[in-house]
Amino acid sequence: MKKISKVKITINGKKRLINPKMSLRSLLYNSRISLNKVAIELNQTIIDKKRINKIFLKANDKIEIVHFIGGG
Amino acid sequence: MKDILKISNKKFTSRLIVGTGKYKNFAQCAKSIKLSGADIVTVAVRRVNISDKKKPVLMDYIDPKKITYLPNTAGCFTSSEALRTLRLAREIGGWKLVKLEVLGDKKLLYPNMIETLKSTEILSKEGFEVMVYCSDDPLMAKRLENVGAVAIMPLAAPIGSGLGILNKVNIQILRSKTRLPLIIDAGLGQASDASLAMELGCDGVLINTAIAKAKDPFIMAEAMKHSVIAGRKSFLSGRIKKTLFGKASSPKKGII
Known about the structure:
The complex is a heterodimer of chains A (about 70) and B (about 260). By secondary structure, chain A is mainly β.
C-alpha cells in the first residue's frame, strides 16, 4: 500500500500534519469549529466562509482562526 | 421624551457601554452586563483555542443577537495590526460598528494618535463605523471627525487605572468642539466618575475594569448604571449657578 506523505501546516501558531489537498472545510469540520462564530485567514488573506469547500490546503499554509473573547 | 443615544444610524437606550474582559468567568461577566443595563459590550478578537474544543466561548453566554457587540483592537500597536483585527471582526458576522484602539505605549496604554488617525480614515473608507479611542486633545478629535469617525472616545485616565477624569477642562472643550457622540473610554474607577462624565456633557461612558475588578462586580454594575442615568439627567436638567454665598431655601415671610 502506498503511504500518503502528510503535509505540514500551521494553525493558530501551532504546527499540524494533515493529508495533502485537504479542504479548508474538512479541516474546520474536523476541528469542530462553529463557522458562525469565527473568521479565518489563510496566509494573511481573509477567507470568505462560503468558499471554504473550494479551498485546498498545501504545505506551509498558515491559517488563523479567530473569535470574540472578553475585552475592554 | 425618550433620551436616546445615537451612534452612526444606530439607536441605544443605555449610555453605559461595558467591556467584557477581566471577569472571573463568563457567568460573572454575563450577569454583570445584565445588571449594568448596557446595550453595547466591547469584545476582543483573539485566536480560537484549537486544542481545547470544549472550552466555553463568550458567545455562549452573551448573545450577540440581544446585545450589540463592539469589536475592539485592544493590544494593537500599529495601524496594520488594527486594520487586520477589525477586518477579521467584520468577517465573523458582519460587524461594522467597531472600536478602534491603537496603543502607543505599553505602560501608559496611551493611544498612538498618528496611527489611530490613519486607521480611522482607512476603515471609514472601507465602510466601517469607527468609534475611536483617543487622547483628550480637541484638535485631534476634530481631525478624527473629519476623516469619518462616528464617535470620539477620549480616555479619562490610563486604561484600568481607576483614576477618574484627570482633565475635566479638556473634556468640556471636546464637548464644545465636536457634534459626534463623546464617550469617555478608560480610566474611570467609581460611580461618581461616571456621573461626572455625564454631567460634563458626555454622551456615554465605557467601563470595564471598574466593574470587573470591583470586589462585588454585580453591585458596581448596578451602581454604574444608576450613576450614568443620574449624571445624564443632571446634565439635561440645567443645574443651578454656583454662588459664593448662601441663599436660604425657606421663605422669610411668616417667620415667628
